[in-house]
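Question: Send over one sample?
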Amino acid sequence: MALSHKGISRSALISRSYSRIVTRRFVEHTAELELELESDSAEGALEEALLAFAELVGQGERDSGDGEPGEPTEHRIDLEGRDLPSVLASWLEELVFLSETEGLVPEDADLVLDGLRLSGVVRGRRGNPRPIVKAVTLHRLRFGPRDGVWRGRVVLDV
């Protein structure tokens, strides 16, 4: 289910092993884009970051230029951060890397956050993702639980 109201996208997905009621919105900056995330689980917020990234690189760009859907692909991920905000930054950096080197347009992921270690599988299609995200910055970077909700903020250099 997806709802949109005043630039805020909300989605809920029940087929995961974790709950995923989330909110995300983009906040524009000059040459930067700030992404705010909310979810009732860490994994839900991280998957919402993936969906936001996919929106930026182009869900419509999942083909190799001939109009046919790109080849499905999966990538195992295993990364660790020094703190929770760095896990969010590392996750998005991994998506930028896979997009640039493998032509990955991500679609979904099964993720497990265990302390400061994020592992799982990213699924998507090979294609021609737009190279819109140049870098993940540390400016205003936040990620963690507050009042029973996982909240994240990251600024992307575009």
